[in-house]
Amino acid sequence: MNPTSHINHDAVLRARVALLGSGTLPVRHEVAAYRLLVQVSPLAYLPRLAEALYEYSRQEFALQPDIALALRAEAVAAARRMHAMEPERAWLLRTALERYRKQLDRMGRGEEVATVDEEITLLDS
Question: Which of 2, 10, 59, 95 has the most CB atoms around it within 10 Å of its CB?
């Protein structure tokens, strides 16, 4: 069975139109559209999802650190899902990890910061 067989194709079309039709789409709508489109075309939309999740965490949830952290963790997960041969994968993953690390640091979660630092170090080697 095709993995896209359970996707509402009308919703996919609406998401694509929303992203193309307006230069001022609220970031929460961008995130919703990219979350849907990643299911159809992960190579094209995982990087965009990762970036939109960061913007969403920063713009909408700056005063809600737990939600901002969860969104940044989702951005890291999106970057990790990119194919290893994608040229921008390493940069995107490093950037997502650094942003996640900053949020952890703001929240005083030093043990988790150390774990993320280790992963960043592994990326550099």
Answer: 95
Residue type, 103: Q
Instruction: Check residue 27 and report its DSSP letter.
Output: H
Is the distance from CB of 117 to CB of 101 less than 8 angstroms?
A: yes
**Residues contacting residue 85 through CB under 8 Å, at least 6 positions apart:** none
Of 75, 37, 39, 35, whose CA–CA distance to 57 is shortest?
75
Say if residue 100 is exposed, middle or buried (CB neighbours under 10 Å; 0-12, 13-18, 19+).
buried
pTM of model > 0.90: no
Determine the Cα–Cα distance for residues 121 and 125; give it in Å rounded to an integer.
Answer: 7
DSSP state of 4: T
> Do 86 and 43 form a contact (C-beta atoms < 8 A)?
yes
41: left (phi over 0), alpha (psi -120 to 50) or beta: beta
